[in-house]
User: Fold this.
Amino acid sequence: MSRITIACLQLEALGLSRAEEALDRALALLDAAGKNGPDLMVLPECTYPAYYLESVESISRARLRPHEEVVRLFGERARAQHSFVVAGIAQPGKSPRLLNTAYLFDPQGEVIGRYSKSFLWHFDQCWFDPGRQFPTFDLPFGRTGIFVCADGRMPEIARLLGVRGAKLMVDATAWVTSGGDRATLSNPQFEYMIPVRAVENGAWVAVAGKVGVEAESIVYCGRSCVVSPQGECVVQASTTQEEYVLAEVDLAHSTGPPVPRRPECYAILGEPVETLPVTRLLSEPIVPARASMRLGMLQLKPYPSPTAYWERVTALSEKLACQGTALILLPGIPAAHADAAAYQAEYSLKPLQDLALRLGCGLACPLISKGSNGRRRRTVYLLSKGDLMGAYHQVHLAGERWEAGDTLPVFDTPYGRIGIMQDDEGLLPEVARVLMLQGADLILWNASSSRYPLRIIARARADENKVFIALATPLEENTPTQSALVNPAGAFLATALPDLEQAIAGQVAWALARYKEMAPNTNVVLNRQPAVYGKPLT
Assistant:
């Protein structure tokens, strides 16, 4: 049983004073969606009593149904519709505060699992305690994991589910938003984070959210959806309507993480927050005007001849240097041309050093270098005005011909603290995370052509780590070019045209990468729980 039908139920957000109405409408929508015979129905975060709970005191004063009764009512609907159901219900905790919990009911109406939100968002922390368990559930159609809303912004959470074999991830959410047009309301999680959670874990993701306005101040974007392991949204709801959407999915297409992991290189993921290099950097004073530079990227077609390659790199680099560009990233090595002389360090490194010296700028140059025992390494050389600042040997490599590196270093340079990832390493959430925790402000990503949506992945890596991402890809026939520069908010600063050799550039105020807040009291460094998920990932 790998083919199943999923119903994502989208509800209008109602405040705490309308909790009873919210419950009635949720149960009625379960009945309506259940007529289609879905195998799984998903309800939003805090379907009952509400998402914005005002205060701990407001909760205690509200005339709410007993928790056990609410759970029983959802269980009865699961049994009546003979469907698995995931429902967001505020759960009493051990303190006066609550847990933001998603309950899993089986078709007999029994609670067979639950998950409590771990990465609390903004005012969540006023009345919720964070969860500290990340279970998966073996259901008849495949192993399934659950997370809640902002958990989708913390890559370690979905990754824990992925490495534990989840073929399906369920997100009970309430995506907040703002905007002047109801029809175009959106959220970064819908636009790129959830698609990337699906791609990096090779899993389906089913999302149920809310629409409308709560507390006259919190706007929800809806867009409940189902996303494939390729990051494609196969069905989505509106931005305005209380409704449900149905998707038939085949969990046999869930292939798991697309790139083999190197857990021995991720030890920092489990280290205490207070000991991290990035934590120290966040408290250091910084002068914004002195923490900014112009960063350029080249988009080039393959040049097997070293002379032709140097000439083309020179021509475009000269233009960027004249425009005040301080550091230039060369594109990834085209996959079909890894053996070409142009990309061998023994031929091209010295001319590129001479070019950096003449132009008075920095170059980041992907080349093939010599390893041991006749093997070769994919290496990015960091040059500054002719001097070699460092070299990164790609860690995630397979095959007898390649020698993989064994560390993910960060280089302290005149252009900021720089981390590097190559080719499909950007698909591994651990790589960018490790580099950020070591204090990288800017991550250079040179990639050869890929079937994956690299620009979307770059946006997620930038936003979830609050760093700049520079992506440079080659221009190859019949393959997408995706070169771009992304800021720590996940927004494009520069993008290349799809069919043109060109140089692009943008201003990198790397001081902005020292601000790690997604929302008030929601920090991508300080709100991590490394003691909980460090060991399983390392």
Remarks:
- The chain has eleven helices and 30 strands.
- The CA atoms of residues 221 and 239 lie 5 Å apart.
